[in-house]
Amino acid sequence: MKYFLLILILLNYPLLATSELETDPVFIEIKAKLDPVWKVYIKKNLLYIERQEPVLVMPENKINAPVTTGETDSDKLARMKKFGMKMKPALIYRFQKRWTVNDSLEADLQREEILRKIQSLPKKYKIENLLDKELSRKGGEIYTPQTKKEKKKVKDYFNEKAKLEKKIPLLPDYHLTKFSLFLISKKGVNNEYAEVYPESVMGEFIQVEKLMFKYKVKEN
Predict the structure, then answer these.
(1) What is the tens place of the pLDDT at every residue in 144-191?
(2) What's 65's DSSP letter?
(3) 29: left (phi > 0), else alpha (psi -120 to 50), else beta?
(4) DSSP string computed for 18-39
(5) What is the spatial distance between Cα 43 and Cα 39, in angstroms, rounded to a whole number?
(6) How far is CA 204 from the centre of its chain?
(7) What is the mean pLDDT of the chain?
(8) In what helix (H) or strand (E) does residue 165 lie, and over which residues does it extend?
(9) What is the number of other CB atoms lying within 10 angstroms of the CB of residue 127?
(10) Residue 191 per-residue DSSP state
(11) Which has more confidence, 197 or 52?
(12) Are strands 194-197 and 55-59 parallel, antiparallel or unpaired?
């Protein structure tokens, strides 16, 4: 009799699922619409939407790289098998209880305060005159210290800047019914730093992102 009662409890109380996220109506809808090639699983506070079959991924900086001509699919596959590694494409999200409007406002205020501190750092360390504006236009901050003292100032500046940047609160990327999602990373995706085979997997990635787009947080 006690085993019969236990079965009834398990059938009628969905909150006994692995995670409360599994009871979220939007999560259930996304999971139901997902291509069977992809699966969903949860580890602690992380949500994985992962392709069941791996692809070949090869690190390759394609920025300003010469265009490869005359390479057939067979040639590309052979190159990928030789230099690439197997990886299951995945989108990884951190989730927590759905943010309220006040949560977002508080995070915005924190971000603004930290960004103000970061902007004031060059003046604090007295390195404004060491910034090479011409080189910095190409991306990033390029300082040109000459003396040992100047080098220490620049080093201390970047150290404090890095610590402050880690404190900048992330804002949710998606809102479900009861939870908010923060995109942590994408694996096995074709981009300017990686080559993926077969390329058709990119189409699958796009379909997954289309499912999620409906719940994307609108930018102000």
Answers:
(1) 999 999 999 999 999 999 999 999 999 999 999 999 999 999 998 887
(2) P
(3) alpha
(4) S-GGGG-HHHHHHHHHS-TTEE
(5) 13
(6) 18
(7) 86
(8) helix 148-167
(9) 20
(10) B
(11) 52
(12) antiparallel
Residue with tokens 């590694």: 85
User: What pLDDT, on a 0 to 100 scale, did the predictor assign at position 18?
Assistant: 61
21, two tokens: 């996220």
With tokens 């006994």, the residue in question is: 16
Distance from first CA to last CA of the chain, Å, rounded?
57
148-167 and 101-124 helices cross at what angle (nearest 10)?
180
Judging by beta carbons within 10 Å of its beta carbon (0-12, 13-18, 19+), is residue 22 exposed, middle or buried? middle
Q: Are 93 and 180 in contact (CB under 8 A)?
A: no
Predicted local distance difference test score (pLDDT) of residue 88 = 94
Q: For the chain, give every domain's residue range.
A: 18-98+173-213, 101-167
CB atoms within 10 A of CB 169: 13
70 conformational bin, left if phi > 0, alpha if psi -120 to 50, beta if neither: left
Read out DSSP for 98-160? PPPHHHHHHHHHHHHHHHHHHHHHHHHTT-GGGB-HHHHTTSS--B---SHHHHHHHHHHHHH
Dihedral angle, C-alpha 127, 133, 139, 141, nearest 10 °: 0
- Interacting residues of 175 by C-beta distance below 8 A, sequence separation 6+: 98, 99, 181, 215, 217
187 touches 92 (CB < 8 A):
yes
